[in-house]
Amino acid sequence: MKEVIVINDKQFELLIEQEVIENEIKRVAERINKELKDKRPLFIAVLNGAFMFAGELMKQVNILSEITFVRLASYHGTTSTNDVKTVLGLNESIKGRSVVIVEDIVDSGNTMVSLLEELGKYEPEEIRIATLLYKPAAMKQKLNLDYVALEIPNDFIVGYGLDYNGYGRNLKDIYKVV
Ligand SMILES: O=P(O)(O)OC[C@H]1O[C@H](OP(=O)(O)OP(=O)(O)O)[C@H](O)[C@@H]1O
Ligand code: HPA
């Protein structure tokens, strides 16, 4: 029987194990190492959800690069909304730079579209997207996702940085709602 965990009113079952997740992150990092070798990229990780992905990714990135963390808020409970807020905490200048957005998940794509719009205002040379998870069936936007570690079905998930009402971010595997 599959392991089931309970967070508040919901039950979750194992979807993807840590080993699989981290192999896919390694694969993404290897591509970044090749493709951005001489670009001195600035990774911009989006808190809170991306903290675990960003940590693992950066252990595997071996090119000269920087990382910074920003915050936005847009998602409550288990449904996506369009109410994306502004980018907080970006102190670095990104003008003329190669930027890689580091996200835990692209679900409807609404957050990513707002983020691209916001960051685009500061005239970076290029913006690439690295996301741990992508739900193709939930996508409402046209987006070019440069680096996707894992494609997942359209289920609500927790773990590896992702939460249900604030809980579950610390789980080392990814779980889906039952
Ligand atoms: O593609 P979308 O439907 O827009 O959903 C994706 C966004 O939702 C989550 O953020 P959330 O606002 O939950 O913040 P968190 O990272 O602090 O959990 C996630 O980290 C993405 O930023
Ligand atoms: O499936 C999800 N789980 C947790 N947070 C999320 N933010 C967007 N989609 C999700």
From TrEMBL:
Q: In which pathway does it act?
A: Purine metabolism; IMP biosynthesis via salvage pathway; IMP from hypoxanthine: step 1/1
Q: What is this protein called?
A: Hypoxanthine phosphoribosyltransferase
What cellular component GO annotations does this protein have? cytosol
Q: Which PANTHER family match?
A: HYPOXANTHINE PHOSPHORIBOSYLTRANSFERASE (PTHR43340:SF1), HYPOXANTHINE-GUANINE PHOSPHORIBOSYLTRANSFERASE (PTHR43340)
Residues forming the Phosphoribosyltransferase domain are: 20-164
Keyword Metal-binding assigned: yes
Which enzyme type, at the first EC level? transferase
- Which cofactor(s) does the record list? Mg(2+)
Please name the source species: Fermentimonas caenicola
Q: Per the similarity annotation, which family is this?
A: Belongs to the purine/pyrimidine phosphoribosyltransferase family.
Q: Which reaction does it catalyse?
A: GMP + diphosphate = guanine + 5-phospho-alpha-D-ribose 1-diphosphate; IMP + diphosphate = hypoxanthine + 5-phospho-alpha-D-ribose 1-diphosphate
According to its UniProt record, where is this protein mainly located? cytoplasm
